[in-house]
Amino acid sequence: MPQMKPMNWLFLLIFFMASFMVTSTFFFFNFKKYLSSSSSYKLLPKMKYNYKW
């Protein structure tokens, strides 16, 4: 593997953490929406297995 600069590693780490926070909050609000609606309650087990952190 080619040696990467520390600046690139720092940027990748910050970018990964920011995207992780956005996606986790997004799925958290979707999770609350699914809990409130009984028709989409069957999709909850699929979300649990597809989005394991």
Automatic annotation (TrEMBL):
Record key words, sorted: Membrane, Mitochondrion, Transmembrane, Transmembrane helix
Membrane-spanning ranges: 6-29
Superkingdom per UniProt: Eukaryota
The protein's name: ATP synthase F0 subunit 8
